[in-house]
Amino acid sequence: MRGGDNTLAALATGELTLGELQRCAINILDFMMQTQVFKRGEMPRAGIIRLAADPACDEACPGAIKLPSSRGCATTRSWC
Q: What is the top-level taxon of the source organism (predicted)?
């Protein structure tokens, strides 16, 4: 696929480490925190989707981030 996102494949083959990916995320978030919108304190329009943990979800959305919640496990998926 031309121009596609191959992040998960690169992680699987070792071309990209989790640390490198985390460093990129830190750099992006640091940049965003320096913007005027962030300094004004406007709330984001997008929300986080929290779903009850479901083993079937792992196959449907590989790479989903699982977060602990007060009611057991929750899954945050913003792109699936």
A: Bacteria
Do residues 66 and 74 touch, judged by C-beta distance below 8 A? Answer: yes
- Which backbone phi and psi does 32 adopt, to 5 degrees? -65, -35
User: What are 2-60's pLDDT values in tens digits?
Assistant: 667 888 888 889 998 989 999 999 999 999 888 887 888 767 676 666 656 666 655 66
Q: What is the C-alpha to C-alpha distance for residues 68 and 72, in angstroms, rounded to an integer?
A: 6
In the numeric block, which tokens belong to residue 39?
């300094």
All structural domains of the chain with their residue ranges: 1-44, 46-80
Q: Hunting for tokens 């940049």 — which residue is that?
A: 31
Q: Which amino acid would we find at residue 18? A: L
